[in-house]
Amino acid sequence: MADENTNAGAPGDGGAQEGQMAMPSIQIAAQYIKDLSFENPSMGINVRQPQIEFSVDLQARKMQDSGPYEVIMKLRVTANQEDKTIFLLELAYGGIFVLERVPDEAIQPILLIECPRMMFPFVRRIVADLVSDGGLPPLMIEPIDFAQLYRNRLARAAAEQQGQQIRTS
User: Fold this and answer.
1) What ranges in 65-112 are assigned the alpha helix state H?
2) What is the reported pTM?
């Protein structure tokens, strides 16, 4: 008597049960430096504890009607000591992401939270290496809360929209 497989579609066998939806997926197709500038006017200056100013901006766009998305993380890092600039670093780091089976309402949060989170370790390494190669101690950027940045962006957009409504009333 032959054994019959009654567990078709069970977890771990690679099959999917009939009617069960496949999980959304995020794939990184490419990562690249889109723009980079490092200025180090401090050569020869005895650097102690510089004041570090850091800003990050995120942009996302669909590249084609049915194609992938491009996410750009722009960083600007300035180190000052007293009234002198130690260094200025500007980096635009891009990623091409393919999203599959993602609901429309989840696309923007994925592009502005999860995709930057996936790119961040590479950006952090680039910044540390650039600063170190510029003759300074490496700068290790603290982890960024991309979810909080996204919430701040939504709050600003809501405040701007409310301000426009008040002006037009």
Assistant:
1) 104-109
2) 0.79
